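Good morning,

Attaching, inline, the backbone tokens for the sequence recovery test we're adding to the shared suite. The designed sequence is right after.
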């Protein structure tokens, strides 16, 4: 009975950690996409509106 409970708690903890790990990677990926967008708009297009749009998207994701 007790080992079963310990195993259950361990599995739950691992799942929770795994979920946080995946979420962290998704957030990191999203941020890198935003930075690529910023660099692209700044270098290739040099358009302030796209730059501000990307910054706005970034600010919304952070909140």
């Amino acid at each position: 009975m007790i080992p079963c409970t310990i195993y259950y708690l361990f599995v739950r903890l691992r799942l929770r950690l795994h979920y946080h790990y995946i979420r962290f990677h998704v957030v990191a990926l999203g941020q890198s996409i935003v930075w690529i967008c910023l660099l692209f708009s700044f270098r290739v297009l040099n358009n302030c509106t796209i730059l501000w749009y990307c910054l706005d998207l970034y600010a919304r994701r952070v909140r």
